[in-house]
Design a protein that fits this description.
The protein is α/β, with parallel strands linked by helices and 448 residues long. It contains 13 helices and 15 strands. It has two domains: 335 residues, Alpha-Beta Barrel (TIM Barrel); 91 residues, Immunoglobulin-like (Sandwich), CATH 2.60.40.1180. The two termini are 45 Å apart. Bound molecules: 2-acetamido-2-deoxy-beta-D-glucopyranose (3 copies).
Length: 448
Amino acid sequence: MLALWFLLGVLVPHTAARYTADWASLDARPLPPWYDQAKVGIFVHWGVFSVPGFGSEWFWWHWQGQQPPDQKCVSYMSKNYPPGFSYPEFAPQFHAQFFNPGDWADIFKASGAKYVVLTAKHHEGFTNWGSPNSWNWNSVDTGPHRDLVGDLGEAVRNRSLHYGLYNSLYEWFNPLYLTDKKNGFKTQEFVMHKLLPELYNMVVRYRPDLIWSDGDWDAPDTYWNSTEFLAWLYNDSPVKDTIVTNDRWGAGCACKHGGYYNCEDKYTPGQLPKHKWEKCTSVDTLSWGYRRNMKMSELMDLPSIIEDLVRTVALGGNYLLNVGPTPDGMIPAVFEERLRGVGAWLQINGEAVYASKPWRVQTENTTVPVWYTSKGTSVYAIMITKPPKLTLLLLGPKTSAVTKVTLLGNSKPLPWSPVSPGGGLTVLLPELPYAPGQAWTLKLDGIL
Ligand SMILES: *[C@@H]1O[C@H](CO)[C@@H](O)[C@H](O)[C@H]1NC(C)=O
Ligand SMILES: *[C@@H]1O[C@H](CO)[C@@H](O)[C@H](O)[C@H]1NC(C)=O
Ligand SMILES: *[C@@H]1O[C@H](CO)[C@@H](O)[C@H](O)[C@H]1NC(C)=O
């Protein structure tokens, strides 16, 4: 009998693994491998909020939702718009007249990213596709009069990038949502008549590789029917084998349930987490959506982006870097420059990033700060500061008789010597070539 149970236990997962609508089952699903291999993605926040382009993509809430309202937003509106101007009146000015999805996809491809995540619907509730559940509050009925989600998806996939969709569960001002909220989330009018029909439709229509869920924190996952939705997604949806999800599926889910963990925005763990995670962050440090009054000093520069990316990957994370396009459909040139810079760095150093695994040691700061990754039998030591002299001391690796050290981008083996029988080596560096990201990678083979 015992043997029979054992056999069944072994066979069942291979033949008819079905997930049940509970976290124990859903959390046990392995992540589709493409995601961990990809390492780098581009996040795109685009919507009606890009039109005011003031403050952040939370403009509507800061102006008319939160109590008390943000006085900067209130006075901006009273100074520049006629009395009674309402937020939905921004939508017709979301023209996207210069939107060329091929140009965007070329930039994303050139950044070295392997996936792109677009806001299909942010907290304002406006859908960037012709959702039948979002009547007159979508990019086909008004604004661009265009299927932005579909058009970008086609261009992105044409360049062999994975395509993900961001979807906000809550909608700040949706009357159905506000009714449910008033009822202490004991009713599900919004979930049954808006959220779920739209979400199922979005998955079937666009077949995303990733769903970046957000706006979950006000209500428990039982209100959102998250586990039922995820069970369908993993068992029966057209993307059941490839879909990746994050962890924002209800109050208390972040860092605990779902696919990979985002935890909080811009979350950066201090040491190697046990669960796959992603750091999302934004080139504009003050906003995810486009801001017309952004200043250069408020943007991440290329070396800080590379440092952040390297730290994230060394700690087992994926790095999702955000840009906010203009309502005209342009990626601001300064963002494009950053993305191309990341791509130029990855062109040389990508071997240490894509499909890498965290190493036994993640970091050391002996000569300069170094982050380690590994792939197969190779270990990569990424220096995120230029060493003051041409010698670099590394204490983490243990050398052997066949140890070989090279600088990525240069095949010539570098001279090295062991520090002690216990480990460590001193590497004699060449004059380091100019690197826009100010980070260089040593490849170490034959070490322990
Ligand atoms: C991208 O589009 C071109 C032109 O339509 C086509 O020839 C090519 O096969 C497409 N590539 C992919 C990866 O879909
Ligand atoms: C939502 O969850 C309830 C309770 O588990 C279930 O009865 C219902 O079928 C679910 N609906 C959808 C659309 O997932
Ligand atoms: C590395 O060490 C130097 C010198 O002790 C210190 O100034 C620097 O802050 C350290 N950097 C990191 C990332 O810990």
